[in-house]
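From the methods appendix. Each design record in this collection lists the tokenized structure first, followed by the designed amino acid sequence. Records were kept in a plain field format so they could be parsed without special tools. The example shown here is representative of the layout used throughout.

RECORD:
FOLD TOKENS (106 positions):
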């Protein structure tokens, strides 16, 4: 049985959905652009917050396997949980940039 989503996660998803509900195309595109401009900093902040919490879980006596099982819907491996605690970033799911894959000119 899947655990219920945290209220904060639900609200964040609703906020993103609300952007799609903006009827004016110009206003919608601008609002999304502002969020995307801020995203690198927000993403870094979320990673740092998770790292601290994973460290606390380990200090409380949980195993890396147990911590990994808590992270995300499908969990992560014990090794990845340990990497998160040390601030290592995952590289497996990052797309590789192919030469010649540039966006069309405007």
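DESIGN:
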């Amino acid at each position: 049985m899947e655990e219920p989503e945290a209220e904060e996660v639900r609200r964040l998803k609703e906020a993103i959905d609300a952007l799609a509900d903006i009827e004016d195309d110009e206003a919608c595109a601008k609002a999304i652009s502002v969020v995307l401009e801020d995203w690198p900093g927000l993403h870094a902040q979320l990673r740092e917050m998770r790292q601290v919490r994973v460290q606390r879980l380990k200090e409380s006596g949980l195993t890396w396997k147990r911590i990994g099982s808590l992270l995300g819907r499908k969990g992560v491996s014990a090794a990845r949980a340990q990497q998160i605690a040390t601030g290592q970033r995952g590289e497996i799911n990052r797309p590789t940039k192919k030469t010649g894959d540039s966006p069309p000119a405007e």
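APPENDIX NOTE: The first helix runs from residue 7 to 20.
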